[in-house]
Amino acid sequence: MAKLYFHYSTMNAGKSTVLLQASYNYRERGMDTYVMTAGFDDRAGTGTVASRIGISSDADTFTSGEDLFAKVEKRLLDGPVACIFIDESQFLEKDQVWQLARVVDDLNVPVMCYGLRVDFRGELFPGSAALLALADEMREVRTICHCGKKATMVVRMGPDGTALKEGAQVQIGGNETYVSLCRRHWRDAVGHQ
Amino acid sequence: MAKLYFHYSTMNAGKSTVLLQASYNYRERGMDTYVMTAGFDDRAGTGTVASRIGISSDADTFTSGEDLFAKVEKRLLDGPVACIFIDESQFLEKDQVWQLARVVDDLNVPVMCYGLRVDFRGELFPGSAALLALADEMREVRTICHCGKKATMVVRMGPDGTALKEGAQVQIGGNETYVSLCRRHWRDAVGHQ
Amino acid sequence: MAKLYFHYSTMNAGKSTVLLQASYNYRERGMDTYVMTAGFDDRAGTGTVASRIGISSDADTFTSGEDLFAKVEKRLLDGPVACIFIDESQFLEKDQVWQLARVVDDLNVPVMCYGLRVDFRGELFPGSAALLALADEMREVRTICHCGKKATMVVRMGPDGTALKEGAQVQIGGNETYVSLCRRHWRDAVGHQ
Amino acid sequence: MAKLYFHYSTMNAGKSTVLLQASYNYRERGMDTYVMTAGFDDRAGTGTVASRIGISSDADTFTSGEDLFAKVEKRLLDGPVACIFIDESQFLEKDQVWQLARVVDDLNVPVMCYGLRVDFRGELFPGSAALLALADEMREVRTICHCGKKATMVVRMGPDGTALKEGAQVQIGGNETYVSLCRRHWRDAVGHQ
């Protein structure tokens, strides 16, 4: 009985490490996995899941508007898959989350999604909202704020080292950096109430 | 170190029972709790948290537009509160969830919210979306579909016994009934893909 | 795919309430459950699961040396059971926990056990040790110490109001009372290190 | 408010990866950690935490009879520690688990233990029994059986490829291999009931 999992966290908690270890566990037992991550450019299928701790793996990519149920069905023509892993799942579209739910329910393949819960403004990502609504199991990948408390929020730091309060949810190619914080320190940093 | 908790589930899982037992545990130890539930009419402060299994408790109510940080601060003038419990928390407004987060962070009082994750159309409630974004800990209150699998969805049944597919998220005073289902049986019932 | 669950906690957390609500959820859907609790006397089959909050249910009893696999098989002759609930499961014998594991694996009926983790001396109960070794899923039923922290330990108070440090693990018919505490306050009460 | 954590699993689930990632998260934020693993020989302090996926770290070692409270106090003379990590914690002695509980309660340093739940005979390890009794939070590191279900048991395979049923709990320097299985396949492999 397959399930749809959402492993959520803030930035730099080690989500990709958890994904790569779980995929490794299947492959070590001789079972194949199908790993996907978000693709932000035109090159189809050339992605990487990489972890800050020094491990990585090739991955297929999902892109805007793609039908992931059809994509998985096509992949299954090449042979059985014991588990599907989706990195950067905050970038899934709502329809794509439903397509993955149908993979679970109708094709009986477990789908494990890893992604951010909220962006630097404290707002849910679209993919995260859909996963938080539909996931069969939700598990937190934890990390810590500089104060030692659990970090659940993230700030986007501008070039001058101060936290940005507005801007696009996704920023590609900029020179911002992200820092994970507990809610109280996030509120201090962005001046929230 | 107080936290904001979200105990989520679908209908008829026993959320109110869990809330009442947790509040009872505090009071049995001589610590006071502050219980609130959603108020849908004009009578301020006259609410009840009741469980199908046969236990209930008086409760204060929260209503649209109310500042819950101020409401808690006012309540604290009457004496200390060890824990705040919010039933029907899917009806909280986003601002109210932030106000409760500030109760946790700034007043150091734990807040335990109990509510539905999705409505009968499979959409997040506003309060649930905000709690899924901000809660420090999320815990599922489980129940089962007629097939024995975990139920995570709910259908609203019309007077003729068929599942409704559209309508207002909140329906008061109608004669609909709600049935909790697993995702696959929910999809069958509402004709979703 | 059935599982063996262990819902553990210290005294007075509301384990029986959680059990009764879960059993109620099944019965409300028209599925039968089989509820057992520990029997300490000679009267077979006359037990009660009762919660301090004011709800209760009749229950069958399990006793020392009984084969619970055979007992469940016998019960199934009277009709199907969607879930088996065991209260006071700290009193199960190790062999009985294995028998329940076989009920799960071979008869495909889920078994939900509710019990204490440690006794007043901080030692595992035999049934809890076996369940902590074998359970497929472990979930904590939480309660609080008088200091507001989570309670995980319990003291047995003698008639003079001081914590007992030695004695039988199970005391029936005495006039001791039990108080749940966090580990630090338990250590203070019993003079542990 | 520090806590004692027990991350339990069967063999080859990736416990060491989870440990190394968590320690990395602290160090990346400029906070020091203290990593220990079981030492089985006479060379003090020369250990390694290594993961099958290809990451590793030097570690101090704990050995039989050592006072871990004193060991941590000594370490703290060299500077503050934000979190203590213990690999192979199934080999802790019961007294050592209590010493770590005192580190948590009295020195306010969180301690995260990673270890096996049961040995190849299905019996709790001493360290695991003590941690399952005393841990403030228990989290499972999951892996899968060859059948795709969660593995919770482990078999020790002899040189001839059959599962061993008896023998010492700890075997050093032999040429056995370990395979993680679900309970049903473990029972088949070892001929249990």
TrEMBL record, chains A, B, C, D:
Keywords: ATP-binding, Cytoplasm, DNA synthesis, Kinase, Metal-binding, Nucleotide-binding, Transferase, Zinc. ATP binds at S9, T10, M11, N12, A13, G14, K15, S16, D87, E88, S89, Q90. Substrate binds at V170, Q171, I172, G173, Y178. It is found in: Cytoplasm. It catalyses: thymidine + ATP = dTMP + ADP + H(+). It comes from the Bacteria. Its main location: cytoplasm. InterPro entries: P-loop_NTPase, Thymidine_kinase, Thymidine_kinase_CS. One of its GO terms (molecular function) is thymidine kinase activity. It is an enzyme of class 2 (transferase). Its EC number is 2.7.1.21. Zn(2+) binds at C145, C147, C182, H185. The active site is at E88. GO terms for cellular component: cytosol. GO terms for biological process: DNA biosynthetic process; thymidine metabolic process. NCBIfam families: PRK04296.1-5. Homotetramer. Belongs to the thymidine kinase family. This is Thymidine kinase. It comes from Thalassovita mangrovi. The gene is tdk.
